[in-house]
Amino acid sequence: MAGRRSVAAALDTRAAIVRCAADIASVEGMEGVTIGRLAAELEMSKSGVIGHFGTKEQLQLATLEYAADRFRVRVWDPVSHRRPGLDRLLAICESWTRHEDDPGFPGGCFIAAVTFEWDGRTGPVHDALAATTKLWRRVLRREIETAVAAGELAADTDPGQVVFALEALAVGVNPARQLHGDDLAPAWALRAMHAVLGVPAPSST
Amino acid sequence: MAGRRSVAAALDTRAAIVRCAADIASVEGMEGVTIGRLAAELEMSKSGVIGHFGTKEQLQLATLEYAADRFRVRVWDPVSHRRPGLDRLLAICESWTRHEDDPGFPGGCFIAAVTFEWDGRTGPVHDALAATTKLWRRVLRREIETAVAAGELAADTDPGQVVFALEALAVGVNPARQLHGDDLAPAWALRAMHAVLGVPAPSST
DNA sequence: CCTACCGATCGGTAGG
DNA sequence: CCTACCGATCGGTAGG
C-alpha cells in the first residue's frame, strides 16, 4: 500500500514537473527551463527534479511529448468524427486556429515556440520535433488528397504546397498576437487558409 | 594617426563581434550568444568583447539592429524603384521569399528565429523587435492600400489580414526547410502569397 | 584591449 | 525524495 502510494505520488510529481517545464518553455523556450528554476518553482531540490529524468535532454523530450499530446487532444481529436476530405480539413483549420487563439500555455503555442528554437539545431530534441510535426503533416496531406480525389479541391492542387501554407499560417498567429497584439490573427489565419485552399471564406468568425 | 587607427580598429572589432553574434543567434537564438563563446570564437578576452557594449542586452540590441539592416538591404532596397501598389507588392514578395531561401545566416533567417524567441517576453529587446517589424508591416500595408485604391486588388481586401498572411508565409519558410528539408518552401510561400492577394500565381519559380 | 577576479547559476553526482 | 557537493560557465567588474 505504501509502495503503491509512493509510485503514484512519484508519477504525480513527474507530471507536475513536465507541466511546469512546458509552461516555462512556452515563454522562454526549452533552454529557459533549468533544473534549478523548476526546483524553486515546485519547491523541491534539484536532485528531486532531475531524478525523474536522468538528464536535461530527457526532461526536454518528456516536455515535448506532453505538449504534443495536448495539441493532439485539442486539435485532432475533436475532428476525428468529421467526414474525410474537405469537411474534416476545414474542421482542422478551425480547431487549429482556435487552439492558436487559446493554446493553454502562458507564452502561447508551445509547438510554435519550440519549432523555431530547435529547427536549426541537431540532436534528439530536433529529431523528435521533426517526427511529431511530420506526423501531423501526413494527416493534413491525406485529407487534402482525399478532397482532391472527391473533386472538392481543384485537381491541380499541390498537397505539399497547401500543407506548408496551412502550417505557416497557423504558426504565425502566435507572434502576431504577442508581438503586435493582433487579436484578430486567428480569424485572419482562417481566412487565408480558405484562400490557399481555393474555397470560399466563411462569412464570419 | 595612431589614435585614428585605434578608433577604426575598435569599430572593426565591434562589427566583427556583432556579425559573429548574429551568426550564432540565427542557429541557437540570442540567448545562445554568450560573452565567453564570442570571446573564444574571436580569440579575445571576455572583457574585450563586453567592453564594446557594456551589457549583454546592449549587445543583443546591436545584433538585432545589424540583422534588421541586412534584411532591409536585401528585401526592401531592391524594390524601391518599383511602381507603388501591386507591382512593388509582388516584387517584395519575391525578394522576401528569395531572402528566406538564402538569408545569409548559418541558421536561417535571424529575424524569424528571434521573433519566436522574444515574442512572449518583455523588455527592451522585445520592444525593439516589435518596433522593427511594425515598421515593415506599415510599408506592406501602404502598398496594399495603394493597390486597392488603384483597383489592382479587390475592394473588400482587408489590409491587416493580408499583411498578417504574407508575414506568416514568409517566416514559415525557415522551419519548413530546416525541420523538413522542404527546398520548395520559398516557391510554395510565393504561390500562397498570390492566393492570399487574390491574383494569379506566377507560372513558375 | 588585457589579466585576474567576483558571486551566481548551470547540469549533474554521491550517498543516504 | 533530501543534503552536500563537483567542475564549468554565466554576466560583469577592477585595475591597468
From TrEMBL, chains A, B:
Positions of the HTH tetR-type domain: 11-71
A GO molecular function for this record? DNA binding
Q: Could you confirm whether the keyword Heme appears in this record?
A: no
One Pfam match, by short name? TetR_C_13
Keywords of the record: DNA-binding, Transcription, Transcription regulation
Cited InterPro entries: Homeodomain-like_sf, HTH_TetR, Tet_transcr_reg_TetR-rel_C_sf, TetR_C
Source domain of life is Bacteria
State the DNA-binding region(s): 34-53
* Keyword DNA-binding annotated: yes
Please name the PANTHER family in this protein's record: HTH-TYPE TRANSCRIPTIONAL REPRESSOR NEMR, TRANSCRIPTIONAL REGULATORY PROTEIN
Q: What is the name of this protein? A: DNA-binding transcriptional regulator, AcrR family
Q: Which organism is it from?
A: Parafrankia irregularis
